[in-house]
């Protein structure tokens, strides 16, 4: 009986050893595959990602340095003065008062579209027109006037136009922002001083312009000192050929 059991025990022991060996081999294989994946694939991805991030950072630094250099090297834009008169000659059905508030006194929301004639500061030339809109913001009874928010443009014939925006007060001088333009005035910025001479019939403007080429001489005449009595020359008022800008807007 003993001789019969021995082979059975040997077979069982051998089976157990074989199973353990297979398990160990399988574990080693898994460890090797895991180690291989970690050592080969992940560093490559990390390297690519690192190079990509490094390139992006370098590009951003170059862009920033380039922009900084441009800012440093860009010359300061000189300020050019230009003077014009805006005159309402009562021949354009302007202004039109749209009482949207439906109140008897001027009130918030009332609209005033308008267009008037523009003359050179020396009153020798008809330059064009103004065209725009005023929105009533506040009636100021103690000043016998109103505060408007204004958006309008000055048209200067073949030279293009200037657009302005800001406070328009009927009872005192104000400054508006120059917000752009076209033609010669493309890229213009700065401000303009508005002087009320006879509201709403005569106004005098002093532009302080930047960002544009040198203004032509015909826009730079010595201005007539502003006063309620100023008038354009008869030739300019009649729009005679020598007293107008080329292709001026009527």
UniProtKB/TrEMBL annotation:
Stated name of the protein: allene-oxide cyclase
Source superkingdom: Eukaryota
Keywords: Chloroplast, Isomerase, Plastid, Transit peptide
Main EC class the enzyme belongs to: isomerase
Organism expressing this protein natively: Canna indica (Indian-shot)
One Pfam family this sequence matches: Allene_ox_cyc
Record's catalysed reaction(s): (9Z,13S,15Z)-12,13-epoxyoctadeca-9,11,15-trienoate = (9S,13S,15Z)-12-oxophyto-10,15-dienoate
Gene3D superfamilies: Allene oxide cyclase-like
Molecular-function GO terms, alphabetical: allene-oxide cyclase activity
Ranges where the record places region Disordered: 40-74
One Gene Ontology cellular component annotation held by this UniProt entry: chloroplast
EC number: 5.3.99.6
Subcellular location: Plastid, Chloroplast
Family the entry assigns: Belongs to the allene oxide cyclase family.
UniProt xrefs under InterPro entries: Allene_ox_cyc, Allene_oxi_cyc_Dirigent, Allene_oxi_cyc_sf
GO biological process, one term: jasmonic acid biosynthetic process
Primary location recorded for the protein, binned into one broad class: plastid
Biased composition (Polar residues): 50-71
């Amino acid at each position: 009986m003993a001789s019969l059991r021995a082979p059975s025990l040997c077979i069982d022991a051998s089976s157990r050893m074989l199973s353990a060996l297979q398990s160990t081999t399988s574990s080693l294989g898994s460890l090797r595959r895991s180690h291989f994946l970690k050592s080969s694939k992940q560093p490559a991805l990390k390297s690519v990602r690192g190079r990509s991030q490094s390139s992006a950072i370098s590009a951003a630094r170059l862009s920033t340095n380039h922009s900084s250099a441009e800012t440093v090297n860009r010359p300061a834009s000189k300020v050019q003065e230009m003077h014009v008169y805006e005159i309402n000659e009562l021949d354009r059905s302007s202004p039109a008062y749209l009482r949207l508030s439906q109140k008897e006194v001027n009130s918030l929301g009332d609209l005033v579209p308008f267009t008037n004639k523009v003359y050179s500061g020396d009153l020798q030339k008809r330059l064009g027109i103004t065209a725009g809109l005023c929105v009533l913001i506040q009636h100021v009874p103690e000043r016998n006037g109103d505060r408007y928010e204004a958006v309008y443009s000055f048209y200067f014939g073949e030279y293009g136009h200037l657009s302005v925006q800001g406070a328009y007060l009927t009872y005192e001088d104000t400054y508006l922002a120059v917000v752009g333009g076209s033609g010669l005035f493309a890229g213009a910025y700065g401000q303009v001083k508005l002087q009320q001479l006879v509201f709403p019939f005569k106004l005098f403007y002093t532009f302080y312009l930047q960002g544009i080429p040198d203004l032509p001489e015909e826009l730079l005449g010595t201005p007539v000192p502003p006063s309620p009595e100023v008038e354009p020359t008869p030739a300019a008022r009649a729009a005679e050929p020598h007293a107008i800008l080329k292709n001026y807007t009527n």
